[in-house]
Amino acid sequence: MKVTLRNPTRELEFPGPKSIVALLQDLDLNRESVLVIRGGTLVPGDALLADDDEVEIRPVISGGAA
Amino acid sequence: MKCQVCRGPAVIDVRRHNANFCAEHFCKLVRDQTAKAIEEHEMLAPGDRVLVAVSGGKDSLALWDLLDELGYEADGLYLGLGIGGYSDRSGAAVRAFATRRGLTLHEVDLRADHGYDVPTAAAVTRRSPCSACGLSKRHLFDRAALEGGYDAVATGHNLDDEAAVLFGNTLRWQTEYLARQHPVLPARPGFPRKVKPLVRLGEREMAAYCVLRGIDYIVEECPMAEGNKHLGYKEALNEIEARSPGSKQAFYAGFLARAVDRFADAAPDHAEGGETASCDRCGVPTTSGTCAFCRLVERAAGAQPVALTRKGRPIDA
Questions:
Q1: CATH number of the A2-59 domain
Q2: Which residues does chain A have within 8 Å of residue B204's beta carbon, measured at their own beta carbons?
Q3: Which backbone phi and psi does B273 adopt, to 5 degrees?
Q4: Of B20, B169, B250, B257, which one has the fewest beta carbons inside 10 Å?
């Protein structure tokens, strides 16, 4: 599967099938800090991603609260 | 995973509510939580005219969308901060959103209208970029709201923002700041009412709301905010939240319910309208002489603009 990460934008390949939880663990990402998006909508946490899926992992933290 | 409301397929889990939601019922949850915050803290009255501070990011565009959905007369104000390509892209996102929704957008450009930009102001005054930006925003949003006859200025600060600020203020026991960390600041002479209707909603929920509502916000982080200490606080709180869902809400809501009033004596006089003078340049209430915004303009407007990369970072940084 093709996984797009942001800030900076980059692409990684992973073999499927793979669960969202496993993918985020492999990437050392906190589920509270990201959304997984496929085909313009959200992918639920229990979904299994297929080998030919294309997903975006989008960070949700923004700063500048000063 | 099923929606806890309709039992249809869920698209998101909200662990602090121990619940999953489909798109329709998640968006309803976000609207209901916004309405509840407004009512609980008496932020707005029905029919109020609201000026929404919009940056092009997820929180401010979602807030504008929500206030419009909830029936308020909500206009947007975008400040062009002069942060290179980042400002170009965020301004484009705001304009596209306003056009698509048929909403009224006002714009102020720091460089064109006031002769400076945030990177230059930060360099010249030796403030952090977030400090120079925040000072500019507060002054110009206040001014625009008063001149435009708006009842309140609404900002997109969410639960994560407020919990991170509270965390930082508590770490250093900054009691003056703790005393005034309310989700609504009443109007006082020279200053409009300020409200934060998203304080019951987390950052992940706001980003999810934007995706599900088709709100095309700017995902990239402000290049001037990288390394900002609040980002570190948010990451730390998210580590705690992952182990113990609901911690951020308990921390912030508990502070408002049981602690903030204990710091009331620490509030500075000017937080309660104790300004004794008017700025000798712009006339806003201030403690003495020239207000902080006019001092910033005075120093930054005559300075050589800081050169930026395409992304908006200072070239010599």
A1: 3.10.20.30
A2: 32-35, 60
A3: 90, 25
A4: B257
Nearest to B55 by CA among B162, B130, B122: B130
CATH number at residue B224: 3.40.50.620
**pLDDT tens across B247-283, in order?**
999 999 999 999 999 998 887 655 555 677 899 999 9
Candidates B20, B204, B239; nearest CB to A60: B204
Hey, is the C-beta of B222 within 8 angstroms of any chain A C-beta? yes
CA-nearest residue of chain B to A60?
A: B204
Q: What is the DSSP string of A29-41?
A: --GGGEEEEETTE
Residue B259 belongs to some domain of the structure: yes
Domain membership of residue B317 (yes or no) is no
B313 touches chain A (CB under 8 A): no
Residue B27 lies in a domain: no
* Percentage above 70 pLDDT, chain B: 96
From chain A, pick out residues whose CB is under 8 angstroms from the CB of B206: 60
Q: What is the 3-state secondary structure (H, E, C) of B99-167?
A: HHHCCCEEEEEHHHHHCCCHHHHHHHHCCCHHHHHHHHHHHHHHHHHHHCCCCEEECCCEHHHHHHHHH
- Encode pLDDT of A9-44 as tens digits: 899 999 989 999 999 999 999 888 899 999 889 998
The single residue listed with the structure tokens 């009331």 is: B264
Judged by a CB distance cut-off of 8 A, whether residue B174 touches chain A is no
Full residue range of the structural domain in which residue B167 is found: 40-300
Which letter does DSSP use for residue B270 in this model? G
Beta strands (DSSP E) in chain B are 12-14, 19-21, 49-54, 73-80, 105-109, 152-154, 184-185, 193-195, 277-278, 285-286
ipTM computed for the complex:
0.91
Count of domains forming chain B: 1
Contacts of B127 in chain A (CB under 8 A): none
B208 contacts in chain A (CB < 8 Å): 35, 42
Interface test with A, best of B61, B86, B220 (most A CBs within 10 A): B220
Which segments in chain B show pLDDT lower than 70? 268-274, 310-312, 316-317
CB contact under 8 A, B211 and A42: yes
